Known about the structure:
Elements: H1 2-9, E1 14-17, E2 31-32, H2 34-42, H3 46-50, E3 55-57, E4 59-64, E5 67-73, E6 84-86, H4 89-100, E7 106-109, E8 113-120, E9 123-131, E10 134-139, E11 143-145, H5 152-156, E12 161-163, E13 168-176, E14 186-190, E15 193-199, E16 203-211, H6 215-220, H7 223-231, E17 250-253, E18 258-260, E19 264-265, E20 268-270, H8 285-305, H9 311-344, H10 354-361, H11 367-374
Parallel strand pairs: 1-7, 4-14, 11-20
Antiparallel strand pairs: 2-6, 3-6, 4-5, 8-9, 9-10, 12-18, 13-16, 13-17, 14-15, 15-16, 19-20
Bound molecules: flavin-adenine dinucleotide (FAD).
Residues 17-20, 27-29, 31, 113-114, 146-148, 152, 172, 253, 272-274, 278, 280, 283-287, 289 line the site of flavin-adenine dinucleotide (FAD).
Amino acid sequence: xxxxxxxxxxxxxxxxxxxxxxxxxxxxxxxxxxxxxxxxxxxxxxxxxxxxxxxxxxxxxxxxxxxxxxxxxxxxxxxxxxxxxxxxxxxxxxxxxxxxxxxxxxxxxxxxxxxxxxxxxxxxxxxxxxxxxxxxxxxxxxxxxxxxxxxxxxxxxxxxxxxxxxxxxxxxxxxxxxxxxxxxxxxxxxxxxxxxxxxxxxxxxxxxxxxxxxxxxxxxxxxxxxxxxxxxxxxxxxxxxxxxxxxxxxxxxxxxxxxxxxxxxxxxxxxxxxxxxxxxxxxxxxxxxxxxxxxxxxxxxxxxxxxxxxxxxxxxxxxxxxxxxxxxxxxxxxxxxxxxxxxxxxxxxxxxxxxxxxxxxxxxxxxxxxxxxxxxxxxxxxxxxxxx
Length: 388
Ligand SMILES: Cc1cc2nc3c(=O)[nH]c(=O)nc-3n(C[C@H](O)[C@H](O)[C@H](O)COP(=O)(O)OP(=O)(O)OC[C@H]3O[C@@H](n4cnc5c(N)ncnc54)[C@H](O)[C@@H]3O)c2cc1C
């Protein structure tokens, strides 16, 4: 959607195909990071965007055993917004698509599911799929696979995927937020568990990390045992756990960390999760997808207006974005394997890991995780002018 917006704004004719009828998916990441907010600022959309209902997270707090500390403090970032905005992804997408609709070249087709690519020799020249109106085929000088971590586009293009592995899966659930609850977003590490609570105004969005592959065993013990497990971790009474009536109220995210060795072929490019599924650590997946879109628009808008995108230009997009992707995944895999994996595999109360001991000793170090999470590696800036 972001790439569709940016290209249409730059005078390129663009069609966004979305297989669902709306963007109302259940929770799949609601974090809009300072660098994405900076992009909104550069596009002149920030003030209108922040009028949408959201919560602002200015610092991240962690609790390891009984010890609580601020892990990241966003107040020193060199950005206009020094906070993460929590907003449902569908509000973000609806906002972008409504703004993109102001450009004559923007077309959004809902309920249009891509099932295959159209090839002419080695070159991808379009996509085909089906919608309620029947099958469709769209020809285009460039097809962009931004279809997420189960991308059909990357699979049909035969692009090779490197799987980096993950030692955990995550259960997601909502619990109501009461006016007298603490406001802060909290990550809690205790014997065998990692639990995160995001304050979403009327409710807490909660994530419970579990050892990979253990979901069926946990479900097998029943929802009452699960409620007991979560009751130990929340900073309020167990009555509220009754809101988890059945497993329908608890969703499983199978964590995947992967990336394509090559993000492109002639006539085709993958970005976002389709090019690199991120671990939920740091909640940076949306931000990286948006950054890819900005980089792709910067490099490709002018050539697309002229109708010619060379392999070198597609390679340039990967070269620009591969380093931030690899660097971020490296940090995520380190935290996954060296910190979360160990906590999940242990029956002992964890002690503060050394990186957090350092942060406790030197609070200004809170700026480093804040920078990594809030802005990331090699932030992108909108360089393509609007074409009216
Ligand atoms: C439970 C969960 C929690 C997460 N939490 C966070 C978080 O807190 N913060 C964060 O930054 N990230 C989070 N993520 C990751 C984040 O959702 C992704 O990194 C981000 O959405 C990637 O954006 P994308 O545009 O590349 O792909 P997606 O957001 O997956 O978008 C792909 C789109 O393509 C559509 N589509 C798929 N296949 C087709 C097809 N064949 N034809 C047409 N349309 C198709 C899909 O319906 C979807 O709308 C979370 C993910 C999950 C699953």
